[in-house]
TrEMBL record:
The keyword Translocase does not apply. Keywords: Oxidoreductase. SUPFAM superfamilies: NAD(P)-linked oxidoreductase. GO terms for molecular function: oxidoreductase activity. The keyword Iron does not apply. This is NADP-dependent oxidoreductase domain-containing protein. InterPro entries: AKR_Detox_Biosynth (IPR050523), NAD(P)_OxRdtase_dom_sf (IPR036812), NADP_OxRdtase_dom (IPR023210). Transmembrane segments: none annotated. Residues 57-189 form the NADP-dependent oxidoreductase domain. It comes from Thyridium curvatum. Pfam families: Aldo_ket_red.
Amino acid sequence: MATNSKVPLNLVLGTNNIGDSSKDPVATIDSSEQAKAFLETFAQRGYSEVDTARCSKVMAAPHTKDNILKGIDALLEDLKIKQIDIKYLHMPDRATPFDQLCEAMDHSIRETKIRRWGLCNYAADEVAQIVRICEERGFVKPSVYQGPYNAAVRGAEKDLFKVLRDNDMSFYAYSPAAGGLFAGNHKGGRKGGKF
């Protein structure tokens, strides 16, 4: 993580709000025309990095080596690309030994299916454990962590940032504006919604 305040921040566009709003309550952009305009506006401002993570209610599917490898192959096919820049494991699977996910991600990097891998929503001690497994087994370590960080959610400051610094991992904040909460976008939130 850079400590030099002169280093520009990297802005990544999260696209979880693009999709079929009749099937996905998070989707607010559900036509090709809207999506194209949204992405073009982002690009016109000089940005290019897009997070295409899929949202689903079952984000913590078993992190067995086989499941992870199949998921990466399916994602490559769906996106019609040869390599994923960053592949995140979005939710911890505490029922499957972390060795399996480390082995799967290492295999995917060595097969050039992914360039880097990262963790999302893992506790600081879990990140340290995963890094230790990778070091002990000679696997490529995760290089990035994605987590919530904003004026209201600052838990990463307690333990996580130190673990990331000690292991030379970047931190990508999601929900820096608390999902529009501070702008009043969620007054009278709908039942079952995020807010």
